Structure formats: C-alpha cells, structure tokens
Amino acid sequence: MLASWRRQQRERSTLDDWRYRSVWQPYTGTPVSFLPGAWWVVADERHAADGETAVAELTRRGAEARLVVLPERLADRAAVAEHLTAATRTADGDTAPADGVLSLLALADGAVDDTQPVPPFLARSLALIQALGDLDVSAPLWCVTRGAAGTTRGGTVDRPEQSLLWGLGRVVALEHPERWGGLVDVPATLDDHGWDLLCAALAGLDGEDQLAVDGATVLVRRLVRAPAGAPAADAPDHPGTTLVTGGTGALGAEVARWLAARGAEHLLLVSRRGADAPGATELVRELTEAGTRVTVAACDVADRAALAKLLDDVPADAPLTGVVHAAGVLDDGVLDGLTADRIATVLRPKVLGALHLHELTVDRELRTFVLFSAMAGQLGAAGQGSYAAANAYLDALAEQRHRQGLPATSVAWGPWAAGGMAATDPAVEERRRRTGVARLDTAPALAALERCVARREPATLVAAIDWARYVPGFVAVRPSPLLGGVAEAQRAVAERADDSGASPESLAALLAGQTDAERRKTLLELVRGQAAAVLGHASMDAVEPDRAFRELGFDSLTAVELRNRLAAATGVRLPATVVFDYPTAAGLAEYVRAAIVDGGVVGVAPVFGELDRLEAALTGSAPDRSARIRITERLRALLASLNEDDAPAGGGGDTVAEKLQDATPDEVFDFIDRELGVS
Fold it and tell me: Given a cut of 50, is residue 188 above it in pLDDT?
C-alpha cells in the first residue's frame, strides 16, 4: 500500500510539473488610446470598408493612417510587395513612412475546406509578412482577428480557423521579433470604447503582444500551471468503437495499447498505409492478445468522402463512441522560405482531418474526442510556422466543441520518448536538447492524457520544460509577458537580466572608449559568444573565428537566431541573410563593427544616458490624460526633427541628425533640454 501511494505521489508530482494552460487576464495597466505615428492599414478588397473605418478611427486617435487595399488576385509575396510599393508612394515619389502596420486581412471570410486547406487570409497574411521583409519595412506588424477560439470571455467561438494566424504569428515573433507587433482579437463589432482599447493595444502595452478586446477591457494571454490534482474518480471507459487516426504510428500505437489496457471493445486504427504500415501486423497481434477487437484501415482523413465511408462502415454492434486524432506530418522551415503549398501539406492531415472528424461525428453520441496537438501551437517554435498554425487550430476547435457542449480534449504535447514525427530529424532533436525540452516518458504521458480526458479539459499543454534553459532563447530578442504566469520562467527571466546586464547602449558606450583594435576584439568575442549560445556550447572557444558557420552546424533556422541575437545586442538592423553573406565569425564581426562605428551608433552613445534619465522621469510620474498627450506630442516633434532627411529651406544647413552626429555630449544634452524641457 505504501509503495503504491509513493508511486502515485511521484506520478502526481511529475504531472504537476508538466501541465500548463492558457488563460486570459485583464490588463492591469492604464490603456492610453492616443496612437502616434504613421500607420499603414492593410485590408482585403472585399472588406475595404473595414479598412476605411480603421483609418478613420486611427486618425481620430492621433495617427496618420493610410489605407492599402489588396486585390483578391494578389497572393504571392512579390505581387504584394509591388502593390505595397505603389500604394504607399507619395506625391513626390517617395515611400510613405510607417511606424506601424495594421493587417485586417484575417477579417475576410475564409474557412478551411477540402479545396482550400489554407484559407486565403492565411496565405495572404504570410505573403504580407514576407513582402514587408523584402521591402525592408521595419515597422511592427499587428494582425487583427475576430472570434479566434479561446480569446474572449463568454463569447461564441465560431471561427476557429482564425487561430491559424495566431499560431503563425507566434512563430513570426520568434523569427522576426524586430518587425512584429502582435495579435489582437476583437469582437464582431467595435464601439467607440472598443476602438480606444484597440488603439491602446497598438500603441504598446508593456510589451504585450497577444491581446483581446473584450467589452470594456483589454485581456492579455498568460501561460499558467495547471496542477494535475488527484486522479478522477470516474476514469473514462471505452465501449463500442474508438477510432485512432495515425493509429499505426509511434504515438498512435501507444494510445492503442493504452486503450486496450483500459478495456476498449473495438479499435479502428487508421493510417494512410493501413495494414501495410511498418509494424501494423505485430501491433494487431499484440492488441488482440490483450482481448481487444482490432480493425486496421487505410484512409486519408483529409479526404472527407473516404472518411465518411469509413465511419459508415463502423459495425452496428460496436458504434463509434470515441475519436483520437493523432495523424500529422511535418514540413519545417523558416518563414522566409514558407509557401502556401507547404502550409497546405501540414494542414491537410491535421486540420482537415480534425474538421472532418468534427463535422462527421457531431450527431453521434461520442464519449471522447481527443486531438493530439503540440506545444508549438501554444508557444510558437522557430522554423515551424505551418506546424504551429495547424496545432493552434486543433486547440481552437476543441475550445469551440467544449463551448457547444460536445466532448473535446486537445493536448498540446511536448516531444515523446516513444518517438513521433520529429524523432528521426537530427536538427529538431538538437534544437530540443538545446532549448531544455525533455522527452515525455510514455507511462506518465498517458496518465496525463487520461486526466485531461476524464476532466473534460478542452486544451492543456503537457511538456517537460526546463525553464532555465528554455527562457534565454525564447526572450533573447524581445520580452514575452506570456510567461509571466509561470514562476520558474519569471525567475529565469530575472536571472538572465541580472547575468547579462548588457544592452545596445552599454555596448556603444564601451566601444566609444576603445581603440579600433579593441573594438574589433570586443565585437569578435560578441559574435563568437552569441554563436556558441545558439549552438548550445558553453564557451565561445567552440566557435573558431575563421571557420565557416555551416561547418560549425548552422542552418537557416540557427542563422536567423544568431542574426536576431546580434541585432538585439547591438541595436543595429541586420539583413536576414547576414550570416550567409558573412559566413565566419571574423567576417560577421567586421560587418557588425562597420555597421556600429560607421553608422554612428558609437558617436551618439552619450545620448542614451540622457534618454534613460528622461525615461525614468516619465515612468516615475503619473500624468493625467491631457498631460500625456502633450508629452507625446513633444516627443513626436523631437522624433520628427531627428528623422529629417533634408537640409533647412535656406540651404547649406545640417539636419538635426547630422548635428547630433558631430555634437559633443554637452551639446547633445543642451539640445534635449531645449527640445523637451528636461533638465
């Protein structure tokens, strides 16, 4: 008895450590609806009226908004880039400035269906993301959705396909943090206060990048722990037929064994190859010997007609009572190389399969409806844009079914020790090891599944995450308030901040006092250190200065990570291809040196200290709305003067930026005192 109790306690402790869920919490700050700067509002041509409304509302709140309407025929990045260039050209032939880009493309109608596994809004959103990068537009992109599952309290979730963009957006935040704003879900209609809240979200709320406008407040997304608690008194039983898609794969087979051990009457194991799948014969024999009736069928679950026929053929003496959807494929790659066709490859089995199972069984008396999702959909994963989108949809579909009173359990799994789609990919395995995500042992993973099903939890993240190792890569370039609800993650964030103590400003100040030779040494050490961190090495000694990055193990994904880390450390915008254009640590360090020194970052290093003082003064006070508006206008005026490209009308004068470039620290401080009234 004591041994059994101890075993149960160990299992409970393990599950407590693995289980998380997403929640929506009211933003506790004070939203300010004033939205400064120039904004491009991008809308679908069939919903141009939404764009016109947005332009008017943003303009009312201080923005200089310009509408860009994308014709329906435009779906690829080159065409979108060309259209953006033409639509934002000013009368004098220049490109209109952009301090932010607001995409309303997801508000267009567009459901997942057999002929279109990738909704048009998702394909065009991807094209917009890529086109903005191709045009070197650094303004943050914000994407608005409507009715994405699980984002509004008490609302009807009727568009789970909107969550596809949420999954993709979480990956953009990791791969292109320097030009990502975030995601905002809105209700069916926005009143005047709703527009105030949306503009406040766009203006930036303490780094929040996953938000929802919900009635009278703004909600922010948080990941929190979801303790397992005691096992449910009534464990689910499995009479009749339980359908398992991906049933002959590594995870599907483990689920089949688990179901058989719990007395499943009849298992219908479905895969594309059916009985011809490797190991299928042995699996059937094993399950049959356990006393379970087994049928193996070949069926493409993305083919609605084929799946409907399969369900119609379920024996009458064992009606369908349960579904486990574990089918899926991978097609990983960075966003810059992603296409709608590649997304479709991943969405077909996972998303279409889940949708068809939902629609074809909605009138059947199911006891269980389980979707095998993945943590990429909840947290994002660099290099897995398609996979993150697909899994975010599964979680949303489960939320929708749950609110409709239907059985639904979506489990966003971390990697299993038993295998899975990515188990044989060395790059994925190395990335898993480096980020501190351990494989889940089969027995406790199945125990976690049982508790999720028994408690009718619609969406749960189950993953073994070492936050001390996971956090540094996740927040290397931009903070993530999402992790604010996990104490271990918050400690890791705080420790990282204490350990690094570095910033672009401190680096610039350091370089300002060094000789040219010392600068080269400092920046080479920076590049080698960041490269070592990306590859998971403890020391920069593993990164030889003149050895090619590819020989060291860099691929397109790790190249993006290195570029993002260096951009965050230096404050310099670096091209997406910089790691391949300068393929050694020595070459890349020299490029970074030129960008920093020749670009003037070092020359204005003392300015940053004064800006820090200004920031402290502003954050240490609590001005009323009128004062905030006046302060914002003054800051905008200073920003505009710094961004002047032309000399004064009289000719021959320097721009403010040029004057600052050549000014002494005392002259710079005098300028700030004069322009801002700060002393």
Answer: yes
Do 89 and 96 form a contact (C-beta atoms < 8 A)? yes
- List of residues 6+ apart from 266 with CB closer than 8 A: 240, 241, 242, 292, 293, 294, 295, 315, 318
- Return the bridge partners of 183, or none: 143, 210
3-state secondary structure (DSSP) of residue 37: coil
508, pLDDT greater than 80: yes
- Residue 631's Cα: distance from chain center in Å? 33
3-state secondary structure 236-294: CCCCCEEEEECCCCHHHHHHHHHHHHCCCCEEEEEECCHHHCCCHHHHHHHHHHCCCEE
pTM of the model: 0.85
The radius of gyration of the chain from alpha carbons, rounded to an integer in Å, stands at 27
Each residue's pLDDT tens digit, 642-678: 665 444 444 444 544 445 445 555 555 555 555 444 4
Q: Is 620 exposed, middle or buried (0-12, 13-18, 19+ CB in 10 A)?
A: exposed
Residue holding tokens 């509302």? 57
Residue of 381, 400, 376, 269 lying closest to 325 (CA atoms): 269
Cα(428)–Cα(423) distance, integer angstroms: 8
Q: How far apart are CA 346 and CA 168, in angstroms?
A: 13
| H/E run at residue 199 | helix 192-203
Mean pLDDT score, 615-623 = 68
Hey, what domains does the chain have and what are their CATH numbers? 24-221 (3.40.50.11460), 241-464 (3.40.50.720), 466-500 (no CATH), 504-597 (1.10.1200.10), 605-676 (no CATH)
* Least confident interval from 237-241, 334-338, 608-612: 608-612
